[in-house]
Every structure is written in C-alpha cells, then in structure tokens.
Amino acid sequence: MKKLLYLFVTIVFLSSSVAFSVERPNIVVLLCDDFNPFYTGFAGDPDAQTPRLDALAKESLVFKNCYTASPVCMPARTSLVTGLFPHSTGCWGNASDLFVNPELTSMFRGAAEVGYATAMIGKTHWFSGRGYRREFNSVEEYFHQGTKIDFIREIVTTFGSRQGRGEYQDYLREIGKFQAQSQDLTNRLKTNQYVARPSLLEPEETCDWMMTDIAVDYLRNAQADRPFFLMVGYSNPHSPFDPAGRFAEMYDPESLTLRENVTPFQKYGTDYTLAEVRKTKAAYLGKISLLDELAGRVIDTLRDQNLLDNTIFVFTADHGMTIGEHRNISKGKFWEEVARVPLLIRFPGLTDAGEETEALCQLIDLHPTLVEAAGGEVSPHVSGRSLLPILQEPSAEIRDAAFCEISNSGHFNYMVRSDRFKWFIEAGREYLFDLEADPFEMKNLINSQEYIEDAQAMRERLRKFLMTEQLNYSAGYVPLANRLKTKDD
Q: 303 and 17 in contact (C-beta within 8 Å)?
C-alpha cells in the first residue's frame, strides 16, 4: 500500500510544475505551544489578526479535527516524535526526569536514514533531567547519535529564561534585561501567570524571535544537494500572557468576541468577569499574532531561497488552551479548545488549491506522514497513521475515532472522539457530548437514557484502543527454526 501511495504522489509531482518528486522534499514543521485551535482567522475567529497563517491555509490542507495524544506539553511532544500514545511511552504528564529510548524518536531517524539533514531548534521537551546519561556521555551525544539530529539549538522558553545560563539567557544579559525580566516572570508565577500584562521585552527580544532567527539562518545556509527536515519548537502562545511591544497594543479588549461557552468565574485568585476574560484573550491573541509574523518570516525565507515549492510546510501545536471557555484558563483537559490542535499542511502539488478536511486524525499521524513523504521506512512500533491518503483526497478517512490521555492526581484519564460524539472520563467522572448538536460542549449527556447505547459504544471503543494500540518490541520476530528453514531453502 505504501509503495502505491509513493507512486501516486510521485506521478502527481512529475506531472506538475513542481521541480522535485515526493521522495526528496524538504520538510519544515513549526510546532507551537498551548495554541487554542479556534483563535485564528482561518479557523473563523472574527478578531484574530493572522494574515500569514490565513494565506498559508489557502495553499494547504486544513485539518479541522486533529487531536493531540495528550493535552499537556511533554507527553504530547513525546508522542509526536515517537508516534506513540502516552500509555506506550510511559510519559503521562510533564515529568522532571524522563528518558525516551532514542530508537523510538524515529521521526528524525526515519529522515536521517534516507539522507536528510535533520535539525531541531527551540523547545524539545520530550525528555527531561539527566536520564540520557544512562546511555550517552552528554546531551549533545544523545541528540546527534541517539535521535539522529544533525543540528540542534535548544532555546529555553519564556519561563525557562528567568534563571540559569544559555544562549537566550546570555542574550538577555547582554541587552541588560535579564534581571528585570527574571523578576517579572517570577512574580507572575507566584501570583497568576495568566493575568494579561505586557512584556518588558520588545518582539525582537523574545525567545521565539531568536528561534526564528536561527531557523532563517539555517534555511539560508541549507546544502543544495541534500534535503532537510527542520522542526522549530516555539515557546508561545504559552503563558505568561505577556505580549511584547506592538503586539500588546494590537487588540482592543472591549471589542473582542467571546465563545459561547465563556461565563464568569474565579480562579488563581482572580475574578474573571467577561471584561477580564476579554483582556486575557487580547493578550493571548497578541502572542498568536507574533507567531503569525514569525511563521511569515520562515515562509518568506523559503521563498527567497527558492525552496518553498519543494518544501512540505507544517504548522501545528502540541495542544490547545482554554481562554475562559468552560470557566477555565488552562490545559490538561479534554475540551475541544484543549484536545484539538491547529494543523495546516502545505504540500506542493497536492494542496495548492487549499481545502479543508473533516477527517479525524491525531498529531502523532504527522510522524509516519513525514517519514513516508521523505521516502523513509516507518518504524513498526508507530501508532500514528499516514495522512497521505487524506492529502490526496480530503474526503478520505484513516481513523474512525481519535484518542487523548493524561494522568492527573493519580487517575488515568481518557478521551474518545468519534464523528459525532465525544466521551471522556476524568477522575472517575464520565462525560458525553453530541458535537453535532452541541459543538461548545455545554450539555453532558452521560446520564441521559436516550444516549446509554452511545456512551457504551464509546467505552467499548476505548477498550479496543487500549487492547490494540500497544508498543510491541517483538513485532517482526521470526523464530530460530523458521529462520534456519528459510536459510536452507
């Protein structure tokens, strides 16, 4: 089946004006952090100023129903690079010490093994602590030899920059803003990191701007005779809600439209009236607009270097974030604002007209999609499924359900999303929503007699998922006797 897909897409490329076949495209992935999937112009938000992403959407396939494997950073990112769900990686939440077997981080390995230059810039967060020392002498050795990343420039996130040494922290010291920025971030953490208040930095002084500078420099110096696989892991629009410079003034809170499932609430010591939620959304949208500009810089560089038309370009996020929806400002939940992620794939020769798809898919499906597009072999352990059939035909389906999971306060929590329903369980409490009739998830149907069979069907789908989607190290093993027989033949 994979060979047929390669053949089909290669024929499409050869019959178009694109100057390469699918076996050798460059690949660029921009991975954001805590990005509510509804807060862009192309997603329908009436206030969001995202002109570069909106233009990208017109040349991409927009996946309207893509779900993360976990609604929190580390397990979501670990699942992306491994192509596995948290129950297989063991990463159920953010951890202070986690070492992922480098053989499993095969999204980069899969490309490297077929000759790609591989690069990772910015936030990784699929391992933590010093667990890598079990197998490697240094973190650089872990990246280069273990995960097969040729070029690695880890840049700390906004909160990470408040202490320690590093490329970005040293830059803040050079411009004389480290101490003030560190104190400001510490104060936000001690009070309420989600309160909207402008940054002390200018946009060009943010960590995401530095990440983009490095990415732009990398693209300008890319080897012409070797394709590249580049991922940029951005820090934003993650808290603190501190838009920088002109982005802090971009949105008028009083004019913003809130989603239907936003009502007043109190949290983090703050009284979130609707006016306060609008201030929060204004700050959050400011950070999204910064990312829009940065994505535009990367796209412009690809165009200037004559690389855009032979580059697969992906824009996505690890998970979403509620901005007042469901009386909350947080992640770690299964609401649509959190479990769903934006996903744009610009694939020259396939998505030029720009389309949308309702097909259910997972963020981890990027893993086999990109490895296959590079002409590599997808590791047998991968649970992700290639999106190439949907890229070829947006009405195609590769999944009958999408799943999400996380561990909180000693509970393993799960979500199942079908075409119509969403079911999830948190701390032993079940929820069922009819997304066709109730897209804002405002009426829990779990105790409704009318939906007993639907709820049971979703529970059974979870059981099937957990029974079949497992990491299997023995896959492909051939018994010794059979190997000897084959050898004799």
A: no
Structure tokens that stand for 23 in this block: 């076996």
Task: In whole angstroms, give the CA distance from residue 116 to residue 26.
Answer: 8
234 phi/psi in degrees, rounded to 5: -80, 160
pTM of this structure: 0.93
Encode pLDDT of 228-261 as tens digits.
Answer: 999 999 999 999 999 999 999 999 999 999 999 9
What are 63-120's pLDDT values in tens digits?
Answer: 999 999 999 999 999 999 999 999 999 999 888 788 888 888 889 999 999 999 999 9
Q: To 5 degrees, how large is the angle CA 37–CA 40–CA 46?
A: 120
Q: How far apart are CA 62 and CA 357, in angstroms?
A: 6
Structure tokens that stand for 2 in this block: 């994979």
Amino acid making up residue 377 = E
Spatial separation of the C-alpha atoms in residues 420 and 95, rounded to whole Å: 34
Closest CA to 342 of 22, 40, 19: 40
Instruction: Single out the residue of 13, 30, 6 nearest to residue 350, CA to CA.
Output: 13
Which domains does the chain possess? 24-396 (3.40.720.10)
DSSP-assigned states of every residue in 42-107: TTT-SS---HHHHHHHTTSEEEEEEE-SSSSHHHHHHHHHHT--HHHH---S--SSB---GGG-HH
How far is the C-alpha of 314 from the C-alpha of 341, rounded, in Å?
12
Q: Give the pLDDT band (50/70/90) at residue 13.
A: very low
